[in-house]
Design brief:
The complex is composed of two ATP-binding proteins (UgpC), two transmembrane proteins (UgpA and UgpE) and a solute-binding protein (UgpB). This protein is mainly α. It is built from 13 helices and no strands. The longest helix is centred in the first third of the chain and has 32 residues.
Length: 273
């Protein structure tokens, strides 16, 4: 009997799954053990004490609820704006003709090589002159603007394979540019739109640099949790709780978006087979 040539896939995936899940188990165990036991190794069973003191400490010592609301607001608004504006820009670059179209596209795409740290100082001076420090718009504008470098590129690559016959048929039926976009292109482009939403939400949810510099009263979760590590006490148990809390909501968002992403892939009636 001929041996299956792909026999190694299942063992390899199993090993990778174990490698991925062991740190997760470690973080969960650290969140319910005191710091003195964690210092000996979270896997140590010489002395095992389960406690929820770290969970209570996170909620009582830090403005967790305010930070959670702030993170959700920032990530949701930036994701919604990116998912709305990216298809419009990509559609214009792909199907419309206007002056300096290619030049503008090259400028946007070249922002790939522009590190975020390069724009921090001029951006800080600009927001300070405009009185926008400690304003949520001071982080939303860079989040949406900087995401154009990859989101427009991703969306435009998808539209390059979009059937031109559907666009021409819409024009014959009397549809203008906006009607073609909303009735023909967008319903068949849900997959890249939700993929962009997933990436944008995860980036803005976990971002630390911009909120740390520009926000004071509406600090999101990464900023609050960056203050957990003490000078002398690393607070491993509390930091483990912070990692769990920070991870739960993006995981749920990913699951929801993933379902929409799969639905969009199955309903893509206009793409090439």
């Amino acid at each position: 009997m001929k041996r299956n040539a792909t026999w190694w896939i299942a063992p390899l995936v199993s090993v990778l799954a174990v490698i991925w899940i062991v740190p997760v188990i470690g973080i969960v165990i650290m969140s319910v053990r005191p710091s003195d036991e964690i210092s000996a190794g979270w896997w140590s069973l010489d002395k095992l004490t389960l406690t929820l003191s770290a969970w209570r400490a996170v909620w009582t010592r830090y403005p967790l609820m305010e930070a959670l609301i702030s993170s959700l607001k920032i990530a949701s608004l930036s994701t919604a704006a990116t998912m709305l504006l990216t298809p419009l820009a990509a559609y214009a670059f792909q199907f419309l003709r206007f002056p300096l179209r290619r030049t503008l596209l090259i400028v946007i795409v070249n922002a790939f090589v522009l590190p975020l740290q390069v724009v921090i100082i001029p951006l800080f001076r600009l927001w300070k002159d405009w009185g926008m420090i400690d304003n949520i718009a001071s982080v939303l504008i860079p989040y949406v603007g900087l995401s154009f470098a990859w989101s427009v590129f991703l969306m435009k690559n998808f539209l390059e394979d979009f059937p031109r016959d559907l666009i021409d048929a819409a024009k014959i039926d009397g549809c203008g540019a906006f009607a073609t976009l909303f009735h023909v292109v967008l319903p068949n482009a849900l997959s890249p739109i939700f993929a962009i939403g997933i990436l944008q939400f995860l980036w803005t949810w976990n971002s630390l640099l911009l909120p740390l510099l520009f926000l004071r009263t509406e600090a999101p979760l990464p900023v609050v949790f960056s203050q957990i590590a003490g000078t002398w006490d690393p607070n491993w148990s509390v930091r483990a709780v912070a990692a769990i809390i920070t991870t739960v909501l993006p995981l749920l968002i990913f699951i929801v978006f993933q379902r929409q992403f799969s639905t969009g892939s199955m309903s893509h009636s206009g793409g090439k087979e």
